[in-house]
Amino acid sequence: MHRPDHQQPLPTEYAVTVRNLTRRFGDFVAVDDISFDVRKGEIFGFLGANGAGKTTTIKMLTGLLRPSSGRGTVGGLDIIRGHNAIKTRIGYMSQKFSLYEDLKVEENLFFFGGIYGLDREAINTRMKELDTILHLSEIRKRRTDSLPLGYKQRLALACAILHRPPILFLDEPTGGVDPIARRYFWDLISAMTAEGRTVFVTTHYMDEAEYCHRLSIMYKGRIVEIDSPAAIKQKYNLPSIQDAFIHLVDR
Amino acid sequence: MKRVWHLVKKELWQVTRDPNMLRVIFVVPMIQLLVLGYAITTDIKNLDILICDQDDSAVSRNLVERFSHNEYLTVKPLPCRAGQIEQHIFRGDVLLALVIPEHFGRDLENRESPEIQILLDGQNSNTTAVALGYCNRILLEFVRDNLAAAAGRNPRLARSIRFIEPVSRTWYNPELKSVYYMIPGIISILLTIITMLLTGLAIVKEREIGTLDQLLVTPLSSWQIIAGKTIPFAFLGFLEMGFAMTFGVLWFKVPIVGSLPLLAVLAAVFILTTLGLGIFVSTMVDTQQQALFMAWFFLVSFVLLSGFFYPIENMPGWVQVITYINPLRYFIEILRELFLKGAGLSVLWPELLSLLTIGVSIFTLATVRFARRAAA
Amino acid sequence: MIKSLFIHLAVKEFIHIRRDPRSLLILLLMPLFMMFVFGYAINMDLKHIRLGVCDLNRTPVSRDLIQTLVASPYFDVIQRFDDPRLTEGLFRQRLVRAAVIIPADFARRLAGSQGATIGVITDGTDANSATLTQNYLESLFLSRSLSGDGMGLPIHIKTRIFYNPDMESAHFVVPGIVALLLIMIGALLTSVTIAREKETGTMEQILVSPIRPYEVILGKALPYLVLAFAIAVFIIVFGHLWFAVPMLGSWTWLMLFCLLYLFTALTIGLLISTLVSTQQVAMMLSLVATLLPSVMLSGFIFPIASMPRPLQVVSQIIPATHFLKIIRGIMLKGNGPLELWPSIAALTAVGLFFITLAIWRFQLKLK
């Protein structure tokens, strides 16, 4: 078995580096000894069925959960020792679109911007900037609970990127949203990487996997394949990621 | 009916899957029953008293002795020179003080009516009133014995005194154990919490997360949904009541003289009112938080206006009128009468009738409101 | 800059409160209603006890005795009967709470040197009232026999009551209600609002941001501290003006200790929030942890000295116990920190105890 070498410093040129990361809940091993690197500026996809360990991995990288063992860096900072410093460099959007339903759109933005240390003026400027792609200004006075899901999703994204994080974690960001909104959302993500931002995204939609620059397929807590979508399809000589996924999981 | 059963099952699953909920429903009440059963020996006792015997004669020492040997009062050995007594009361060292004047023994012998002073801290007027009662009682008994002794020596005095000796009995609870009447009270409060609060919260929670709409689009009628939401909590309520009663009987030896089937019927009627209130609360609010506040409001008002702590007879007339619509008032009365006296329907029918009236009205009102809100 | 991050949380919390006027209304009206009703209703000094009298003697002497009972404010003689066997039925029908039975030889024996006996029966279903009733009746007969023939009592009892000479129950109920409401609102609001964020997932969203855990707690607690404090001032002022509850001590000290007490309430709320994950359980736990103990074990109604020893120990970790001593002491007696320091120290200790427990639980969870 490969033993982690703790003496050797982890490479820092990557946006995210993970070595032998493991998380147990009692007897259950949710994430089992995974290692990978995410390059700066790429869309890195985590593909897997529900319960494959995607969300647990994201939670460990964002500091919501301590790893049982293993190491990792985010933005060059250690995820255990540096988890407070990491927080200013990342944005996080959860699968629940965690917004305050009884707050207005702009109040949600002011709040989330505020806890990242942005003042009102900076948030306003940033909102104008984001408006060209997110189109939230016409609904800024509306209560969040009155919005259709697609808008809530965009609002959640806006809350996550207000503070211009170089690395963005998206945990199943398109759950429950209609295909047109989903397509639009992925355009947004692509646009963001064009600005040099790294996007770390989990999904269980196979079609979405095709948008990623590189893809890691998770199954029962382990990474069973990691490469670009094209390379994966070529390697197994299958026409789509869906086929490759089924092939890998069925093994 | 089968559809309702599915709802009931789902509800029971939800409650029992949450270990925290189970703990709150069963373990916490048991602890409360245990603690409060012991706590509320409402007899007020061990009150701190300061006695200033400025006479220090055989007679006055006899009086001090009587205070020392009283289980309700605890004599505190504190200095009591002039001005210090007030200071002790001010600082809360003692609740009351008794001042026996100089020459008390001599004056009493000469029938010159010596003056005994009682100084009390009136902050808690209830305790104060009771403490004053104890003191008066001890003083009266002292005087009686003193007179009786004097009469033995003086036949002329003996002819002028007429002693009335009360012979007291207490029925249904000869040892005057407060726990006998507190346990029924606590049981009814627990039952109210489970049925009213949990039902209200369960409905509002479904509305909050949107599953209520899911139910409303099914062929289930409003009545069926309500039945599905209330039956599980009625069931839990009964379970809890049985649990608490068993505990009360085994641990605190609370006697249950009356008929258990009758108790079950009366409890069912009571639960009808609290479930109705739970639904009613759920139709008045939008969020769980609001539901909780309203339910809490009802709960506290019910408890304090039920006669559990304070006799209803003592309340001013307009407050007594309010208590007529308080279901807890009737249920506590029912439990006490049934547990200790073994009262039957021939005695308890007014309570049953009141509960039934309140229950049917509130339940109907709540269901109509629920249906209207669902349709809107 | 980073230091003031919690302000954003506090502002957001205020918006939540404002968006929910119904909760706010309930929170403001309920204490008012409670104080109004209970200020009048809570009165343990029994009056108008329903009494049955069975006079087997039927002489002027016995009728004279009954007249004393009729004249007493404590008793309402509502049944007179001739057959002692009817007593049982009267109790069963709940027509009377107590019965006095005057034996047939009452007048004759009273004239003799032995003295006469008289029967007193009470309904023990309500043990508390029964004790009081029995005491009243026995004292009444005693004092009557001692002051017979117009001699007057051989001793003169002079009573002076300090701090509440008119024995107004509102004077002890109002501080009690303040204590009860503050602990409930403080613990309840805090635990529920945190549980709500956990339920909706927004807590995670906050925890991935640079805001520190203590800032989260501060930001969430501050608005409710302000709200509960406003309610406290409102009730105290109302009780002071309407029920004329005196305010002999210093307002400043009282307000300061209200804040200390609220802090303890919030720590209980925090502790509860670390134990639960849903609003429902948070509410239930807050209710059972605060309502009954604060009413029954704090000295609000029953003196702590009367409780069994183990419960006296338990009562010491209930914040209301200490706060009641403080608020009653300040309002009714004019006490200051000089007299109240043991309670103040105890309240502080209880708060620190709960916050330590909460932090310990919180860290346990992260691992």
How would you describe the overall organization of this protein?
The complex is a heterotrimer of chains A (251), B (376) and C (367). Chain A is 35% helix and 25% strand. Chain A is an alpha/beta fold and 251 residues long. In chain A, β4 and β5 form a beta hairpin. In chain B, α3 links the parallel β1 and β2. The radius of gyration of chain B is 28 Å and the shape is elongated. Chain C is 66% helix and 9% strand. In chain C, α1 crosses α9, α2 packs antiparallel against α7 and α7 packs parallel to α10. Chain C is elongated, with a radius of gyration of 28 Å. Classes of the chains: A alpha/beta (251), B alpha/beta (376), C alpha/beta (367). Chains in contact: A-C, B-C. At the B-C interface, α2, α4, β4, α6 and β5 of B face α2, β4, α6, β5 and α7 of C.
Question: Number of DSSP strands of chain B?
Answer: 5
What is the string of SSEs of chain C from the N terminus onward?
HHEHEHEHEHEHHHHHHHH
- Unreliable residue stretches of chain B: none
Beta percentage of chain B is 5-15%
Strand order of the largest sheet of chain C: 2-1-3-4
Main beta sheet strand tally, sense and closure of chain C: 4 strands, mixed
Total strand count of chain C, please? 5
Structural class of chain B: alpha/beta
Produce a short descriptive summary:
With 251 residues, chain A is α/β, with parallel strands linked by helices. Chain A has helices at residues 54-61, 83-86, 105-115, 120-134, 149-161, 179-194, 206-209, 229-236, 241-250; strands at 16-25, 28-38, 43-48, 69-74, 77-78, 90-93, 167-171, 198-203, 214-219, 222-227.
